[in-house]
Amino acid sequence: MRTLSFLSLGALLLGAATATLAALPRTPAPEGAQVYFIEPADGAAVGQTFTVKFGLKGMGVAPAGVDVPATGHHHLLIGLAEQPEMDRPLPMTDSIRHFGKGQTETQVTLPPGKHTLQLLVGDKNHVPLEPPVISQSITVTVK
Ligand SMILES: [Cu+2]
Description:
The chain is α+β, with helices and mostly antiparallel strands. The chain has one domain: Sandwich (Immunoglobulin-like), CATH 2.60.40.10. It is built from 1 helix and 9 strands, in the order H-E-E-E-E-E-E-E-E-E. The protein has one helix spanning 2-21, and strands at 34-39, 45-46, 49-57, 60-61, 71-78, 96-98, 105-109, 113-122, 138-142. The relative contact order is 0.26.
């Protein structure tokens, strides 16, 4: 009996994990929505810890988990070689930072060298909108 309930719990957890990874319905992007960097500027030279300010037009910012039409939250992509998959929740990694409290700026600390930065808006489930509201990729040189 104990073994059986352990197995059912395992199946339940596996089911939940699979559901999380599976494709979720994507939120349509509001017409003309645009995300961009207020700072730093593309090509800027910055110190090892620098401020990044996120700009958003044509839609609003809301925390993750909050269901308000025409809103989303920011994700900062740092040095990603490939764009993340757009039909599922964005993973939380050092290279994909979530601002699920609705933050519109952050401090980033990176080692010296060139780094690419890009902003990507996600919906309440951290899934990119359809079509993706994604910024230009900018490059900064950390001194
Ligand atoms: Cu997120």
